[in-house]
Amino acid sequence: MSKITTPPKTPLAIRGTQDIFGAQAEAFAFVVETFERVRRLYRFRRVEMPVFERTEVFARSIGETTDIVSKEMYTFTDRGDESLTLRPEFTAGICRAYLTNGWQQHAPLKVATHGPVFRYERPQKGRYRQFHQIDA
Predict the structure, then answer these.
(1) Cα 11 to chain center, whole Å?
(2) According to the model, what pLDDT value does residue 125 have?
(3) What are phi and psi of 77, to 5 degrees?
(4) pTM given for the model
């Protein structure tokens, strides 16, 4: 007697995320390339920030009682029992890096970055849980 098996379901994108392809991907690349050109023109230094930080970095800078901290952050506990958060914005991480890496010696410092940020919001037209932010 043979077993009837159902084919596995194809995984869907997570709610609040999007796949970008074709003309939309080209438009996205154009915006990022334009940002990079302007950043270099005005001599902003490129900085790459971690996608996640200790939760306290955001709680201290944004404020522990704000909606972003209390309701909208993707926070998890790692295997070392440390609370970590996917970045909901860039400013807190840049401030942390400025203080911990001695970037004061380069002051005044103009920095710019771009990349994905994450907020647990109710997805709706034009609002996503993962989106790309440009920051200068």
Answers:
(1) 23
(2) 84
(3) -105, 125
(4) 0.83
